[in-house]
Amino acid sequence: MKMIALMAVMAIVTYIIRALPITLFRKEIKSKWLKSFLYYIPYAVLGAMTFPAIFFSTGSVFSASLGLVGAMLMAFFDKGLMAAAVTSVVIAFVSGFFV
Prior knowledge:
Blueprint: H1 2-24, H2 32-55, H3 61-76, H4 81-98
């Protein structure tokens, strides 16, 4: 019973978050500041959710940090997403043996 109540609350909260913008913003948003603010929110939320998970994805924060550095270097040198992902995984995996 408790699990069903928790699932119902999660469903309601999810629905409210998705339905609220539709009901509040029926007209086109004309403010450039508000448009730019709303444009960058998904990236900020994605970063806020992903960044902490990077450090706890392995058994060691050090090996995860090395994998992050590898991915950032690949991104800096304009390599593709696949190259950055493979590089970070390999670096984190190999450095896990030494930590």
